[in-house]
Amino acid sequence: MSGNTFGKLFSVTTFGESHGVALGCTIDGCPPGLAIDEEYIQAQLDRRKPGQSRFTTQRREPDQVKILSGVFDGVTTGTPVSLMIENVDQRSKDYGDIAAKFRPGHADYTYWQKYGIRDYRGGGRSSARETASRVAAGAVARKVLGDDVRIRGALVQVGPHRINRDNWDWDQVNQNPFWCPDAEAAELWTGYLDEIRKAGSSTGAVIEVVADGVPAGWGAPIYGKLDSDMAAAMMTINAVKGVEIGEGFDAAALTGEENADQMRTGDNQGGPVFQSNHAGGILGGISTGQQVVVRFAVKPTSSILTSRQTIDISGNNTEILTKGRHDPCVGIRTVPVGEAMMALVLADHMLRHRGQQVDR
Amino acid sequence: MSGNTFGKLFSVTTFGESHGVALGCTIDGCPPGLAIDEEYIQAQLDRRKPGQSRFTTQRREPDQVKILSGVFDGVTTGTPVSLMIENVDQRSKDYGDIAAKFRPGHADYTYWQKYGIRDYRGGGRSSARETASRVAAGAVARKVLGDDVRIRGALVQVGPHRINRDNWDWDQVNQNPFWCPDAEAAELWTGYLDEIRKAGSSTGAVIEVVADGVPAGWGAPIYGKLDSDMAAAMMTINAVKGVEIGEGFDAAALTGEENADQMRTGDNQGGPVFQSNHAGGILGGISTGQQVVVRFAVKPTSSILTSRQTIDISGNNTEILTKGRHDPCVGIRTVPVGEAMMALVLADHMLRHRGQQVDR
Amino acid sequence: MSGNTFGKLFSVTTFGESHGVALGCTIDGCPPGLAIDEEYIQAQLDRRKPGQSRFTTQRREPDQVKILSGVFDGVTTGTPVSLMIENVDQRSKDYGDIAAKFRPGHADYTYWQKYGIRDYRGGGRSSARETASRVAAGAVARKVLGDDVRIRGALVQVGPHRINRDNWDWDQVNQNPFWCPDAEAAELWTGYLDEIRKAGSSTGAVIEVVADGVPAGWGAPIYGKLDSDMAAAMMTINAVKGVEIGEGFDAAALTGEENADQMRTGDNQGGPVFQSNHAGGILGGISTGQQVVVRFAVKPTSSILTSRQTIDISGNNTEILTKGRHDPCVGIRTVPVGEAMMALVLADHMLRHRGQQVDR
Amino acid sequence: MSGNTFGKLFSVTTFGESHGVALGCTIDGCPPGLAIDEEYIQAQLDRRKPGQSRFTTQRREPDQVKILSGVFDGVTTGTPVSLMIENVDQRSKDYGDIAAKFRPGHADYTYWQKYGIRDYRGGGRSSARETASRVAAGAVARKVLGDDVRIRGALVQVGPHRINRDNWDWDQVNQNPFWCPDAEAAELWTGYLDEIRKAGSSTGAVIEVVADGVPAGWGAPIYGKLDSDMAAAMMTINAVKGVEIGEGFDAAALTGEENADQMRTGDNQGGPVFQSNHAGGILGGISTGQQVVVRFAVKPTSSILTSRQTIDISGNNTEILTKGRHDPCVGIRTVPVGEAMMALVLADHMLRHRGQQVDR
User: Which of B85, D59, D98, D285 is surrounded by the fewest CB atoms within 10 Å?
Assistant: First the structure.
């Protein structure tokens, strides 16, 4: 029931602080025989690396992943796969204000209240650096899922600006610094984010992650629902404040006639052809065989260049201003993290589904 | 890792189908010494009972809860509290079309794909009747939390019609059949839902659940975050398609200046006075001491009086029309369920928080 | 992490006190499509029923099992299977001394210390009546395992008297009231237990449970070892004080030459022919394909007709004498319980093994 | 439900192979504020280090533990404590026979059957080197327990030679290379083990671990029993084949009069004075406040200098002889491991007990 473990059969335990010795994860329950090496995982990790455009933090995080166990002769052995990323640049610094003051919107105050102590360096355990471990684990999860399941993420809203879904083109996603599937929106965002960045401000975003190739039948009633695990997974990502499946919150405004996805016989590998996908590929907590569609909202990062009212650890009123490099829209780098979390949930449910089936 | 168990230390395992012999739950990890009796639990159960107005199904469900174990001399003993609700009206019926056809928007098709068999009577395990067990368990969870923690739910949107939050009055909630905190909205909804009901249609809704009195420090990094468990909890409720905390999806459109809640010293039992609550009472997965605010969207029930296209279990095209009494807005009866799920999450985290603390 | 749940994928949550309303269990993760009915489970339950000879308690426990959920059209549906046994004879009685005094060797004192309250009627939750739930669940587990796996238990020691293993004959097990595989020992035990019984005394025993047909490969490193789960399972049974696998404690006195089981190619369905089975069918926590052999020791029941020194709930010195019908050797009725626990462990590991395998 | 995780609230996930890059563990749920540093953990680790006498393997394992996370300013922060031990000497070697042949009594064959692949270098994951992680984690667990709880282990049998319990003297334990509390037995074992060693043979052993200072009330019914978790814990240790609590298997030969521990009022911090401790400090799965006494049997290591019959990975008959340094009695080095496992179980139950209590 470890709070730092995610998943039941394919389970990932992460550790590490932003400015500690190292961070990483141990993957337990990984099926044997999967071809994994450091280059493969590194390639996934590099997708969330900061500093790849002017729209993400210019902080240097040369994260190099190291496989500590569970892989032999190039394939997984079925025993725990432990992955480590050393924090190369942990020289003593002046942490200035953040040691003694609680940054508004950050977890500084709540960690302090919970534990009576906190590793304030770079946010400690609450830093988004932890998500590197998830992306590394997600890379292994993708191997479990195999080539039939394809997971892709996209940024669909930045600040108040949503994409035009009619323009959706997956090929665009790698052609702009935003993982944006709408070329027009990407251009608009460029201007918008330049403003935000220059103002030392920040903005929120919405990410959509889609899985193709998930067969019908994954997931389980009642508290093991695929959508429940998706919601939990996404809500564990730093700064996420909302999650929705398929139609999501918009479903509240629909009628039953509009919302329920009708079925027709068709040429779909034995399964029905659904005439719409308001459900986002999940009914009763179990996959329908359609695309699994999950969306989540990321709040604006609370590290901004404007002075903010807060209290210090002695309870006195004070102000704080977070200097240094920061992400104008932390949602951008969250796209690969959302993909990784979906991969973890699906791999876990794939194994759980297998586990309950008996041929008799 | 049971799919039908919810919670880690205060854990609830539910069982039962809509038209089976009985349904209920076993609560494990309940602290000893709490005063519980059947009348107390029944009062909570009755809040979600159908047929209390013309806006909920007219189906008769005279659910009587029975305590099977774990209570002695009127108080909990620390051993499992098992609660049972017998299905009194399980006479053999003509289940007509639903045995052979998959109802669009329901879990019929996915259960069939997963298990190769399904109890089609009234939806079997996927029926919202299962939520009675949650409300019963939630009543026990409220006893764990004690009087200092107060959990209240309200309906804040029906179909496309949202409440005016300026009108919010908790006293209104028990004065209309919708748990609506806005008297004006309640009136508008009356007309809207009468239309929906007469048309044999249905509509979605949004529910907000708020907890007062949660101390700072509950919740845990990283996958044991309070908001992650809240999201998982709400997403397990039938028909829920989205969950958000505090500002939720609207946070995407805000800037860091607007979103991060500033703190000031004040008269707040030692804690700071937050100047806003965009966070919904949770930062870094841990409670801040403010109100915990969770919102979730419920889709329109898929049981409507309009004929819908589907396939049968042999894979042939067909149509289905769900006759009989149904909920025009299933979201109404979901309000007490949302409260119960929040109570379960908070009680569990209260115990988990206690568990990790050592006086030394 | 519920203390009243056993198993990971095939998981059983039990509830109920000796003299409460009912006791039973909810089985989660049960594969769909298994033929189960009340008669089948009842037949297993009847094997542990008291009063079948003068060597078990003459208490009347007409336990009738009722299936509350999870079975439809005669087969499991994949949803929770809930089983209930009502306590038919729970009329108010004079519980006399046991309400106010702690019986030596029983859990009275420890429950009191832990919870500050205890259901003293018949031992409450700590009564061996709880094992009825296990036997019922074990019956379902046997269906999961199928006919290829055969689980049989036997009593191999009563008081100081061990069987002669050269006389082992499984057919004898059902021909004496002791589940004894050695006809000569059974005769000796008859006399010995008559003495114990007439003296109002009690004695301990050792039970051996053996599974045939377990394929190589079930179990998992390191804390999910098959033998670790067997040890945990048996140690949860009331009055058990020791568990061993294969050679067990005798292995301490052996040399490596004597103990390690050599292998030869042979006619064994592709597997090797082991030349001995000191390992008890488990190496490195994983099954070898040989017989799985588990043995456990049961202490003498502490309910005897001799007055014993103890304290009362106010902390005063006093004496207690447990009147009424009791088991001279509670180990006898534990044989079907040991079989059930082995079935639960094996069914769980069968599903867990399936879960981690991926065909790629 | 990870197979490589131990514990519920204080939970330890281990990783690593004998000859891989590194091994270690992540401790989750550790209370904040405990003073921990590498020196402290190292001192515990050094107790199980090989090569400290001629009676343990002469293999050089200069295990240096490194704290990767969870400790800040010298104390635990409440976040995961990750510990790593690098395998300094992992140069490519000739693994000779063990790559292609299954060593009798080792896990070679079962890993092969389970996973279809195995890291044969030094036994891979099934090597007793994994227990270094446990000892490191156990050192942290001792800090959770504090000074009031004292855990000590001793070797009480080597081969067929048991200690004389009348000679028991804890001070002797550190004055011989066997952790033997009986000076006479230690002398006898010296001769016996020299013979075993010179013959290239091996022998089994029995270890006893005792905890003083455990308060009454730790543990939980029914499947969360303290003794059940102790049994599981010890049975996960390499080569362990049997576990017993208190009187253990000898309880089978006792009568109820002999076995049940009587109680008297006395000067015992409010608790009763037990007149004996056949129960080993646990009744009904819950601690009594007496010494907790656990004993376990270790089989002789299967690595011996005598040629043994086996098969190779192609299924052909062959022979194998395990050259190189080995432990004549692996039980000796298991003493600190048994202590560590007891510390893990107790720390976990301490937190679990706290978690279920509510002051109301």
Answer: D59
